[in-house]
Amino acid sequence: MRNFRKRSHDDENSSSSSSSKINHNKNYRSHHHNHRISPISDYPNHNSHKKITGKRSNFISYTEISSLPPKVKILCEIIAKTPAASVESYLEDTGIRLSQEDVEEVLKLSYDFPAASVKFFRWASFRIQLSGKHSPHAWNLVVDLLGKNCLFDAMWDAIKSMRKELLLSLCTFESVFSSYAIDNRVQEAILNVMALNSLLRAICRVRKTQHAREYFNIVKEKIRVDSETYTILLEGWEKEGDEDRAKSTFSEMVSDIGWDPRNVLAYDSFLRALLKGSGGTSEVLKFFDTMKDRGCYPGMKFFKFAIDECVRKSDAKFAKVVWESMVGKNICRPNVKLYNSLISLYCNLKDFVLAEKLLDEMVYNGAFPDSETYGLLFHFMIKQRRIKEATPIFKEMVKNEIVPMQQDCSMAVKEYIEGRDSIMGIKVWRFMIENYSSDLDETGNLLVLGLRDINRVPEAVKCAEDMIERGIKLNSATLSKLKQSLSKAGKAFAYDELLSKWKNHS
Fold first, then answer.
1. How far apart are CA 356 and CA 300, in angstroms?
2. By CB count within 10 A, which of 203, 262, 490, 496 is most buried?
3. For the whole prediction, is pTM greater than 0.85?
4. Distance (Å, rounded) from C-alpha 38 to C-alpha 367?
């Protein structure tokens, strides 16, 4: 390990000019590629030595703890004695692997060195065993140490990253407001819309949206709230299933900030709340039409939820309205999963015309049919005895090397034979014996008897011989009925040959 140079507080300040971004550089594969803390040198207070020194006087140092684990002590020493620009290189030389608890302990004892601590935090994400990611407490410690050092812009960058990871909690904001209070900037924190939105999000996440709303009412006259503020509240009402409060908040949002096509997330949550409520689809359609008139649409979040609800409730009418409004106007591009959901709806309702229409248009929207798409259509068509429509679907499946479910193939053989389409019945059977190796006896016997019943005795004999050679069990009852047909046709010799083969393979 390298020797560490003793460093003064001035060294900390000068080294803080290096980038402290929590997105990893190109030499690392990142678990947190969206986690960013801007360079501490970018902020006007980073060189305020007197100010920061005043805050540091009460920070606990690793030198004050007598029984630290060796690796924690080594890491704290590197952070304290190495320029921030070189910290990651020094840390890498140690080869130390960490637990989440180790990271938390190091951060607790490194408040005096925010730039180096952030570098350590980034490096540690590659060295955490088991989970491979930082704990919420470690993130809160980073927020706290930046705030306590008056590096508020960097602190908010960390909070943005926490929000993306859904890690914000009320503890985070206890630290934030504490840091502002220590710096005599309480009013700034209270009137900061980013602080407000982040706090409301943390409150709503624990299903306390009414508390968030009450705080919003208190500060609204002092802060110029934005669309995100209303979106957070609407998301909260949606999760809690409060349709009436969602309506009230939505009405207030429109009155306050107007209609904005960019406010997609708010429209998503509002319409989802309505769809979950007592009014259901009729209430959604009323507001949906109003939104369309103003050029405002929800996004994929609502679209997916609406289609799933339509499938669950077998509501083809609402599905058609939503689909035509969202897809027909190029608001959303549905993926394969959405197409499959809607195809399953129409198949269940026996509307195969619309189901096949969706299949035909998929590729034009960049969604390519998969095994589930074809499987749905083939299954329902066979189930409803729509064998003419099922035939091109089956052929397309074979062409695309998609294997239907064995149960559907068995059912198809039965339906084709009963429909006197021996060619397709035999074709599906051959496909089965090429792709499945077990549970073929029942279908094979059914095919042989079916061919015999529709006066296709030669084909029945060929299939029977093939079954015997492949080791597929030909029942004695099936053999007996073939004997009757062959004897009646004056071809008893053919039966004798078949019987001989049957006995030799038994």
1. 23
2. 203
3. no
4. 39
Residue given tokens 């409803």 in the structure block:
384
Provide the pLDDT for residue 196.
83
pLDDT confidence of residue 495: 78
Residue 94 CB contacts under 8 Å (≥ 6 apart), including other chains: 1, 71, 74, 75, 78
In whole angstroms, what is the distance from residue 341 CA to residue 269 CA?
21
**pLDDT tens column, 153-172:** 899 888 888 888 888 787 88
Residues 178 and 187: their CA atoms lie apart, in Å, by: 12
**Does the pLDDT of residue 86 top 80, yes or no?**
yes
pLDDT at residue 173, as a whole number: 76
Q: What residue spans define the domains of the chain?
A: 1-179, 432-506
User: At which residue do the structure tokens 């019945």 appear?
Assistant: 425
For residue 476, give the nearest of 503, 458, 455 by alpha carbon: 503
403-426 pLDDT, tens digit per residue, is 999 999 999 999 999 999 999 999
pLDDT tens digits, one per residue of 447-466: 999 999 999 999 999 999 99
Q: Which amino acid is at 432?
A: M
CA distance 42 to 354: 58
Q: Give the CA dihedral 367, 377, 349, 356, nearest 10 degrees.
A: 60
Q: Compute the mean pLDDT over every residue in the chain, rounded to the nearest whole number.
A: 84
Element (H, E) at 415: helix 406-418
* Pair of tokens at residue 400: 């695309």
Q: How confident is the model at residue 369 (pLDDT cuts 50, 70, 90)?
A: very high
Please name which of 329, 36, 313 lies closest in space to residue 321, comparing C-alpha atoms.
329
Which helix (H) or strand (E) is 439 found in, with range? Answer: none
Residue spans of beta strands (DSSP E) within 245-297: none
3-state secondary structure 136-157: HHHHHHHHHHHHHCCCHHHHHH
- Nearest of 416, 417, 408, 407 to residue 455 by alpha carbon: 417
- Nearest one of 69, 75, 70 to 106, comparing CA atoms: 75
Cβ-based neighbour number of residue 387 at 10 Å: 18
Which residues make beta-bridge pairs with 98? 128
| DSSP assignment string, 222-250 | TS---HHHHHHHHHHHHHHT-HHHHHHHH
CB 337 within 8 A of CB 307: no
Q: What pLDDT score does 44 carry?
A: 39
Between CA 318 and CA 9 the distance in angstroms is 66
- How far apart, in whole angstroms, are the C-alpha atoms of residue 391 and residue 378? 8
Residue with tokens 């597929």: 472
